[in-house]
Protein backbone atom coordinates (compact mmCIF):
# COMPACT_ATOMS: atom_id res chain seq x y z
CA UNK A 1 0.00 0.00 0.00
CA UNK A 2 1.24 3.50 -0.85
CA UNK A 3 2.02 5.87 1.98
CA UNK A 4 -0.86 8.25 2.66
CA UNK A 5 -0.23 12.00 2.85
CA UNK A 6 -2.31 15.12 3.32
CA UNK A 7 -1.89 18.02 0.91
CA UNK A 8 -3.14 21.34 2.24
CA UNK A 9 -3.91 24.65 0.55
CA UNK A 10 -5.64 27.89 1.53
CA UNK A 11 -7.93 30.05 -0.62
CA UNK A 12 -9.87 33.28 -0.11
CA UNK A 13 -13.37 32.08 -1.03
CA UNK A 14 -15.48 29.17 0.20
CA UNK A 15 -16.84 28.50 -3.30
CA UNK A 16 -13.29 28.38 -4.64
CA UNK A 17 -12.29 25.94 -1.90
CA UNK A 18 -15.23 23.68 -2.70
CA UNK A 19 -14.39 23.83 -6.40
CA UNK A 20 -10.74 22.89 -5.82
CA UNK A 21 -11.80 19.99 -3.58
CA UNK A 22 -14.42 18.68 -6.00
CA UNK A 23 -12.31 18.97 -9.15
CA UNK A 24 -9.19 17.40 -7.65
CA UNK A 25 -11.20 14.44 -6.34
CA UNK A 26 -13.06 14.12 -9.67
CA UNK A 27 -9.66 13.98 -11.40
CA UNK A 28 -8.69 11.14 -9.00
CA UNK A 29 -5.75 13.12 -7.65
CA UNK A 30 -7.06 12.59 -4.11
CA UNK A 31 -9.49 10.23 -2.41
CA UNK A 32 -11.17 13.16 -0.66
CA UNK A 33 -10.91 16.88 -0.12
CA UNK A 34 -12.23 18.56 3.01
CA UNK A 35 -13.03 22.28 3.29
CA UNK A 36 -12.94 24.05 6.63
CA UNK A 37 -13.00 27.66 7.69
CA UNK A 38 -13.18 30.48 7.65
CA UNK A 39 -9.84 31.11 9.30
CA UNK A 40 -7.97 34.35 9.78
CA UNK A 41 -4.55 34.33 8.12
CA UNK A 42 -1.83 36.92 8.70
CA UNK A 43 1.20 36.87 6.39
CA UNK A 44 3.83 38.97 4.66
CA UNK A 45 2.91 40.01 1.10
CA UNK A 46 4.35 42.84 -1.01
CA UNK A 47 6.41 44.13 1.91
CA UNK A 48 3.58 44.41 4.44
CA UNK A 49 1.71 42.22 6.89
CA UNK A 50 -1.73 41.38 5.52
CA UNK A 51 -4.64 39.74 7.33
CA UNK A 52 -7.35 37.98 5.31
CA UNK A 53 -10.12 35.44 5.71
CA UNK A 54 -9.38 32.12 4.02
CA UNK A 55 -10.67 28.54 3.77
CA UNK A 56 -8.45 25.48 4.13
CA UNK A 57 -8.70 22.52 1.79
CA UNK A 58 -7.12 19.30 3.04
CA UNK A 59 -6.69 16.49 0.53
CA UNK A 60 -6.02 12.85 1.38
CA UNK A 61 -3.90 11.16 -1.26
CA UNK A 62 -0.88 8.90 -1.70
CA UNK A 63 2.77 9.93 -1.64
CA UNK A 64 3.01 8.73 -5.24
CA UNK A 65 0.08 10.92 -6.36
CA UNK A 66 1.02 13.99 -4.28
CA UNK A 67 3.41 15.61 -6.81
CA UNK A 68 0.71 15.49 -9.51
CA UNK A 69 -1.88 16.93 -7.10
CA UNK A 70 0.55 19.67 -6.09
CA UNK A 71 1.19 20.59 -9.75
CA UNK A 72 -2.55 20.62 -10.43
CA UNK A 73 -3.24 22.85 -7.42
CA UNK A 74 -0.51 25.30 -8.45
CA UNK A 75 -1.98 25.50 -11.98
CA UNK A 76 -5.65 25.83 -10.89
CA UNK A 77 -5.21 28.05 -7.84
CA UNK A 78 -6.03 31.77 -8.19
CA UNK A 79 -3.13 32.92 -5.94
CA UNK A 80 0.20 34.00 -7.45
CA UNK A 81 2.03 31.90 -4.85
CA UNK A 82 -0.45 29.40 -3.38
CA UNK A 83 0.27 27.55 -0.17
CA UNK A 84 0.61 23.88 -1.10
CA UNK A 85 2.03 21.75 1.71
CA UNK A 86 2.47 17.99 1.93
CA UNK A 87 2.18 16.40 5.37
CA UNK A 88 2.95 12.71 5.99
CA UNK A 89 0.35 10.55 7.70
CA UNK A 90 2.20 8.48 10.27
CA UNK A 91 -0.63 6.10 11.10
CA UNK A 92 -4.35 5.66 11.36
CA UNK A 93 -7.20 3.29 10.68
CA UNK A 94 -5.72 0.68 8.29
CA UNK A 95 -9.04 0.32 6.46
CA UNK A 96 -9.25 4.08 5.87
CA UNK A 97 -5.63 4.25 4.69
CA UNK A 98 -6.27 1.37 2.29
CA UNK A 99 -9.37 3.20 0.98
CA UNK A 100 -7.31 6.37 0.33
CA UNK A 101 -4.66 4.33 -1.49
CA UNK A 102 -7.33 2.61 -3.60
CA UNK A 103 -9.19 5.80 -4.56
CA UNK A 104 -6.33 8.21 -5.27
CA UNK A 105 -5.06 7.62 -8.76
Largest β sheet strand count, sense and barrel closure: 4 strands, antiparallel
Low-confidence stretches: none
Which secondary-structure class do the elements indicate?
Answer: alpha+beta
Taking all residues together, what is the mean pLDDT? 96
Strand arrangement in the largest pleated sheet: 2-3-1-4
Taken as a percent bin, the fraction of beta residues is 35-45%
The shape is elongated
Alpha-carbon distance between the two ends: 13 Å
Count of helix runs: 3
As a whole number of angstroms, the C-alpha radius of gyration is 14 Å
Q: What is the architecture at the second tier of CATH?
A: 2-Layer Sandwich
| CATH topology-level name | Alpha-Beta Plaits
Give the SSE string.
EHEEHEH
Work out the number of β strands. 4
What is the total number of structural domains?
1
Indicate the CATH class. Alpha Beta
Helical fraction: 25-40%
Provide the fold topology:
Elements: E1 4-11, H1 14-26, E2 32-45, E3 48-62, H2 66-76, E4 84-88, H3 94-103
Antiparallel strand pairs: 1-3, 1-4, 2-3
Architecture overview:
This protein is α+β, with helices and mostly antiparallel strands and 105 residues long. It has one domain: 2-Layer Sandwich (Alpha-Beta Plaits), CATH 3.30.70.120. The protein is 32% helix and 40% strand. It has three helices and four strands. The chain has a four-stranded antiparallel β-sheet. Strand 2 and strand 3 form a beta hairpin. The protein is elongated, with a radius of gyration of 14 Å. The model has no long low-confidence stretch (mean pLDDT 96).
Amino acid sequence: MDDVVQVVTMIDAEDGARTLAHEAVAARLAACGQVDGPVSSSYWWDGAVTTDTEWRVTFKTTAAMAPELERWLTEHHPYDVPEVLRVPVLGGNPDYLAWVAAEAG
